[in-house]
Amino acid sequence: MACMLRGLWIFHAEEDVRLLMSRRFPTVERKMQRLLGDDYVALPCDEDINIMFITEVLHEEEDHYIPTGIPEPFHEDFQQGSFSWNAAQEAHTEKQWPMGPVASISKGKIWPLLFLFKKGFYLVTVVALEKKYKVETVRALELPQITAAFAVLEDICDFIPASLTIADVAGIAELQYYIRSAIPFGSPVNTNYHLLRMVRQGFPNKEDETTQRSPAWKPYLYKGKAKLSLSIVETVNCTLYGKPEYEDECFISGNVYCCADLPGIPEICVPMSFQNNGGPPPEISVHNCAHVVGGIKATKEESFKISCTPPTGPFVLCRYRRAASEIVPVRGFYQIKEMSPVEFRLLLQIQFHPLVGNTFWSCQVRLPFHHRGVIKSHDLKCTGGSFSLTDQGQSILWNLNVRRPRGSLEANLLGELIFDSPKPAESAENAPSMRMIPSPVAGGSGGGGG
What we know:
This protein is α+β, with helices and mostly antiparallel strands. The protein is 16% helix and 32% strand.
C-alpha cells in the first residue's frame, strides 16, 4: 500500500500551540472505513485534535499508579508518579512514546500519529494503514508508509515561510495551494517546492539560474577533489566457558562509515554482502539519508545494495548485528596460580580461527592488575609478538602484530610475576580481564578459564 495521509495539521508554536491550518482527505477516510470495517476509528474534529496533541503527546500526564502492598499513609508519596513503576504498562507506553515522534491519540485508538517540529511549527499527520496493528508488537521501521510520511512532512516544511502567522490570510491560502498540489486525495505526488513554485509562477527564462534543491542533511555543497572512502569497524563479542558442557557464545556487531566528498548532490550505491552459512541474516539499520534497494526483504539475502544521497562529512552509513556466529575468531585460555602472596604464575593462550588467522593487521591483549599493585619483576616469555608493562607497571600489553609467522594460529604468554606487596582481596570488578582488538578487519573480546 502506497503512502496515504488521513489528515494534515499545522500548529504554530508561539506562547501556546495554536492550530494554523488543517486539511483532511475524505477519499482516504472512505477507503480506510472499507478496509478496516469494525476496527475503523474516525478522526476527531480539529479542536479535539488540537487538545489531544497537546495533552497526550506534548504534555504527557504523570502515571499515578500505586504499587500493591503500600500502606495507606504512604499513598500521597506516590501521587506524583515519581516512584511508581508498572512493567507491563511501561512496555506498552514505550512503543508509543518517546521512541521517536511516532505517537498515538484518543487513548491509543488512532495510531500512528507522526509529527515534526521545524521553523517554529508542528506538522502533524495520521498515516493510513491497510490493517490494524498491535502497538505493543509492531515495529515502525518495518512500515515503509511511516518512513515515507516523515519525508513528506520534511518537504512540506519548505512550503511554510518562517514568518507565517495566523493573521496572514494570503500566506495561508498559498500554503493550502501547495499542499493541495503536492498531496491530492491524500497521496503524495510531487512535494518538490521549487518545481511547484515554477508551475504556479511560471517557468524562468533560460538566462535565470535555477538551483538544485539540497537535502536537509547536506547544509552546504562540497567543492574540491572528489573522494569517496568507506571503512568498517566490527566488534566480536565472545563468552568462552572453556568447558564442553557449556556452548560458547559469540555475536558480531559493526558500523559501516562513509565519507563522500563529492561535488553537487550525487547519489551513491554501496553493495553489501554477508556470509550467512545457513544462519539467520544480520539485522540492518541505515542512515536516514539512505535506503535499501529492494526494501527490507532484500536484507534477508546474502547481498544487497544501499543507495543514498550522502551528507557533508563522515557519517555512519549503516549498522548491523548478527545474533550468533558459527565461528569464534579468537579464543583465549587464561590461568593464574598463586605461589605466594606476592608471586604468581601466569599462563595465557591465544588461538586464532583459520579464516581470520592471517588477515588482521594488529592484535593487542591487555591484562590489568590494578587490584594487585605494581609488577616488581617478571620472567614472562611469549611465543609470538612482544609485550611490555604499561599503566605504571600495573598492566601487561601483549602486541601480536610484530612479524607473526605466517600460518601460526596459536601464541602463548607464560611465566612468573612478582608484585611489590600483597593487597587485600577486592571485588570481581578489579579482576584481570582480557581485551583483544584485531584491526581493521575485526575486533574481539573474550576469556576462558581453566
